[in-house]
From TrEMBL:
InterPro entries: MFS (IPR011701), MFS_dom (IPR020846), MFS_spinster-like (IPR044770), MFS_trans_sf (IPR036259). Gene3D superfamilies: MFS general substrate transporter like domains. It is found in: Membrane. Keywords: Membrane, Transmembrane, Transmembrane helix, Transport. One of its GO terms (molecular function) is transmembrane transporter activity. Belongs to the major facilitator superfamily. Spinster (TC 2.A.1.49) family. It holds the Pfam family MFS_1. Its main location: membrane. Residues 11-437 form the Major facilitator superfamily (MFS) profile domain. The keyword Transport applies. It is a multi-pass membrane protein. The chain crosses the membrane at residues 47-65, 77-98, 104-127, 134-158, 170-190, 222-246, 258-279, 291-311, 317-337, 358-380, 410-431. This is Major facilitator superfamily (MFS) profile domain-containing protein.
Amino acid sequence: MAISPARRTLIRNVVILACAVDAADKALLPATFKVLSDELGVGPKELGALAFAQSIAFSVALPVWGSLMRYYSAKDLMVLGCFLWGALTVMIACTSTYEMQFLLRLLVGAALAVVNPVGQAIICDVVPEDERGWAFGLLQSFSAGLTMFVSFGTTAIATVTVAGVKGWRLAYMGVAGLSILAGAAAWVLVPSAVSAVKPVGQTSWLAEQKRIVGDVAHKPSFVIMVAQGVTGGIPWNAFAFLAFFFQLSGYSDLQTGQITFFGGLGGVLGGLVGGSLGDRVNGCFPDVGRCAVAQTSVVLGIGCFLWFIYIPYSATSFPILAAAFFMFNAVSCWTPAAALRPICGTIFTDSKDRAQVLALWMALEGFISSFCGAPLVGLLSEFFGYKLVQGQDQPLPAEKAESLMALRNALIGVTVLPFTLCAIAWVPMYWTYPRDRAVMQLLAGDLRTPHKQRGKWTIDLVGVPPHHHCVHSLHQGPGSVHGPGPHS
């Protein structure tokens, strides 16, 4: 079915809305760490366990949702996911025990996993390759903007009581309502023909997963993307404790919400800048442009993180911290829109493969960062001397200072080293991505073969040998990429 440009834009925007609500739902837990700590009587270790439960369930469910695109349309899966996580978020708002919170975090994490792989597949199907950086930048910026408002609002009203109901519970119900609205919009506006189900023949589900794993294992660029994602994802998982850190530093709930708000503004700007910058630099340097933008973002992020984490609390420190947090989010979030998602869309051309590959990639990244992110911050903070004070309204100044130092050291330890490894992991991508990109151009064109000229992989027409012979010739040189067919 032919889709007009205006309809493609509408479909893209609906997907962006669903992804933004997905991101906002994920922001609810870190925004309520402080109030949950007070109401449930738990410390960083238990809060980290809640974050771990949601994150690990998200990671485990990703490949399942991705593989279901072989049997169900992207539209149906997105609608189901929105309705499911909306209902579960309402249930979280109604619970008051730690054990039930933990169980529901597992379930909502699994439900939230549907949007990313399905949304990626839809966007790559309706957006041309040279505009995908901008599209993913819009997605990232709108997600950051909605997350900003949700984090700010939830943190600011978390302890306020309205008609006998705590504010944090009302915030959860509000986001649940947005989830239902996003699902309804997808149901009405996204046609079933987009990323529609295709016949899978006699291939079993397990055989299909083996094919996908074998395909990605022979694409060096994908392996490197996973490596940088694993290391780079750990700090972002650990940043669930930042709002708690600001509150512990001495900032009020309202000020913490405002700091988070300014950080969200930086994320909105960063997504647009990253996506646009990735497209522009890629236009000039198609082999290495996106990689360079991503690596620059990671390095700038390290510097800005060390800036804001060491700003001491004082009567005049609030605007300085807000500005530093804005800058951090503005420069450290270019990588997904500028490089990762567009590169994934380039080296995998079939929409179903894209969904499954993205799901596998995010699962591997999320699984490891789930263990090494927020849970590790909780454990390290207590190891460094964090004190959970019960039975008194306020901790003693000495205890508060010791706990603040412990949490700061834990955040630094779980941020600087992984970010540094992430920046290093991008280096081999300057060699592998041009090769993988050239191979996919070959598979798309049948009669063309890539070769290296003056340090750059290019495509030239050759004779007319059988297609499988042409592909086989690529396997002989160093850095070769194996693939089972034209849709690998």
